[in-house]
Amino acid sequence: MAYALGITENGTKVPRGLVMGDTENKTVVKDLLSNLVQRGLSCDNGLLEVIDGAKALHSAIISVFSDQIKIQRCTIHKRRNVTDYLPKDKS
Questions:
Q1: Range 57-64, long-range pairs (CB < 8 A, 24+ positions)
Q2: Can you give the pTM of this predicted structure?
């Protein structure tokens, strides 16, 4: 399942969109993001996309928003990816 979650200035999480599919599928994510734009999502004041590192997700974001947004890799996902390569006694 792919979903978009907005976070307000005070940290409140607001569901924005949901589609059946995987974030590893560029078409699914592109459809989700395009639907958000059609429903009024604007990048005029900037937009930060925090993602888990899926290449298809990154590609879909660039495809829909071009260079109008900033993309940040989730630090928790990055940490998990790195520690997966460490021996168990080092992680």
A1: 57/23, 57/24, 57/26, 57/29, 59/26, 60/26, 60/29, 60/30, 60/33, 61/29, 61/33, 63/26, 63/30, 64/30, 64/33, 64/34, 64/37
A2: 0.75
